[in-house]
Amino acid sequence: MKTHYINQPALIERLVKDDPVRPGIPAEKRLGRNAHLLITGEHDNPTAAVCVSYTQAVPTSEDDLFDDGVRQTVAVFYTIWSYKRGAARGLLMGALDHINRIRPEVKRFVTLSPKTVMAQDFHLGNGAYILRENKTTINYEYHPHRPFRMMSMVDGYVTNYGKLEVHNVNGLNRTRNVWYVTDNYGNLLKHIDTEMGTLVL
Q1: Residue 40 pLDDT more than 90?
Q2: For residues 93 and 59, is the Cβ–Cβ distance under 8 A?
Q3: 135-188, pLDDT tens digit by residue?
Q4: Domains parsed from the chain with CATH numbers
Q5: pLDDT per residue as tens digits for the range 97-130
Q6: Most buried among 51, 61, 123, 181, by the most CB within 10 A?
């Protein structure tokens, strides 16, 4: 589904009333040279909405979201919501691709997310990794060319989220998205079977 920029103040004013994450940010701050609101669906019938700001550094709070720099290299997704099941993921993936194409100066794609299980499950499930935990927020980071197998360091090992053939309790092999852990040479050490809720060594 096509991703649209919204540049009508009245429509933004209406849409942001549904923002469940950062309702306190005024509508006028969400539109400008370094701030956009994007949707999927039609203007009068959106399926999802996301707010993006462009900054020079990864923010840790709302106070860091908006500035007037001329060459911002960090795209920050600071709130996203959906009117249709599954539409938020499609919008996020579309926004990553869209921004990557039209703003070549942007080198990083991060979030300013609340510390909630819902946010964690959404972003990790869509291929992000935890970049940094702040006092009241968490930054997840995406790579537009690698929606899966994002890597971070945990206890000296490389953790990944991606497709892996796993051996389930019935002795059948199937391929699905799971967390798995490798050493620095790529050798599989263990994986977390997210469907069974178990850690497999």
Answers
A1: yes
A2: no
A3: 999 999 998 654 333 333 333 333 444 444 444 434 444 444 444 455 444 455
A4: 3-142 (3.40.630.150), 152-200 (no CATH)
A5: 889 888 989 999 999 999 999 999 999 888 888 9
A6: 51
